[in-house]
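Input record (one chain):
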Amino acid sequence: MKELLLKQKQVLLFVVAGALSALVEIGSFKIFSIYLPLIFSEENNYYGIHFPLSNIFSTSCGIITNYFLSIWFVFERGKHSKRKEFAYFMFVSFFSTLLSLTFFQLFFRFVFKENIDLGFFVISKEILSKISAILLVSTLNYTVKKKVIFNG
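The corresponding structure, as predicted from the sequence alone:
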């Protein structure tokens, strides 16, 4: 019973850490997607890729935030050294980033055609695509981080 409660607590903490990391990622994406096109005009559509730098920079912010939240609050240290653990975490995050960027492009091009107007707030198709991509990749991240990186 104690193990089940501990597992549920870990999943809850992972969700909270993921949500905080996602807020950092989405918030920084919003900032980058507004200001980077002023500097790099092709940022809106770089050879058919929408917001490439905004995605890469914001995802990096989210990954770094998630790493520190994961080691501080979610997972116990595994059998790996800190250096190896960090390298594995970054490798998994790099792979996840590629998946997330791919899903973002698919959602942006094919799924979300218009913004969602909530009356008091408008959610752009860029933000909807970013949120959807993050949610889709999160399950994979938890499984790999728990089983491979933090061995628990």
